[in-house]
Amino acid sequence: MNLVERVKGIIISPKTEWQAIAGEPGDAAYLFRNYVAILAAIPAVCGFIGAVLAGAPVIAALVVAVFKYVLTFVAVYIVAWIVNLLAPTFASQKSFASALKVTVYSYTPSWLAGVFLLIPGLRFLTILGLYGLYLLYLGLPPVMKTPPEKAIWYTIVIVICAIIVSLLISALVTAILAVIGLRTFMYM
């Protein structure tokens, strides 16, 4: 997989790209090392730089960036686990490898939109990452073998679960940062 071509394909021609993805292995180590590790660094690095430019202390911004980067891997894994767990409920094929692929590639717009964290006044543009919801919807039928009529409901349930996971992870990060005295820098 060529990273640039995959990102371009999933953003510009997702229906075609999902077909290609469906036929690929979903090796977790490979996906995390060659896709998540690289793209998840975009919001972490840009958020760090943007926070420092906005006046946050460098060490505090760095700690928050590292926490968020590491927890991105945790969130992706948990959401993929949920996607796999819910598969039979929506007449889909249960396969963690497929669930991981659909989860990882659906997060692509969110990670790319992380570039807007560089300039604090442009943070609102991270909303463009919501395109990933549409990608998830498109990816479920070819990758998880979800019947098209069930894809919208499967997507909605996954999104609700992903929001809950995100809130729980945010609460954990806030608690950890409070313990080490950096809570005020959580939302950089």
Structural description of this entry:
Helices cover 72% and strands 0% of the residues. The mean pLDDT is 92. It has 9 helices and no strands. The longest helix has 32 residues, at 148-179. The protein is globular. By secondary structure, it is an all-alpha fold. The chain has helices at residues 3-12, 14-22, 28-39, 41-53, 58-86, 96-106, 108-113, 131-144, 148-179.
Topology:
Blueprint: H1 3-12, H2 14-22, H3 28-39, H4 41-53, H5 58-86, H6 96-106, H7 108-113, H8 131-144, H9 148-179
Helix pairs in contact: 1-2, 2-8, 3-6, 4-5, 5-6, 5-9, 6-8, 8-9
Order of helices and strands: HHHHHHHHH
The first-to-last residue Cα distance is 33 Å
- The helix/strand class is mainly alpha
Q: Any idea what the shape is? A: globular
Average pLDDT works out at: 92
Sheet with the most strands, sense and barrel status:
none
Helix content: over 70%
Radius of gyration: 17 Å
Weakly predicted, low-confidence segments: none
Assess the beta-strand content as a share of residues.
Answer: under 5%
Provide a count of the helices.
9
Query: Tally of extended strands?
Result: 0
Q: Key features?
A:
mainly alpha; 72% helix; 188 residues
Give a short overview:
This protein has 9 helices and no strands. It has helices spanning 3-12, 14-22, 28-39, 41-53, 58-86, 96-106, 108-113, 131-144, 148-179.
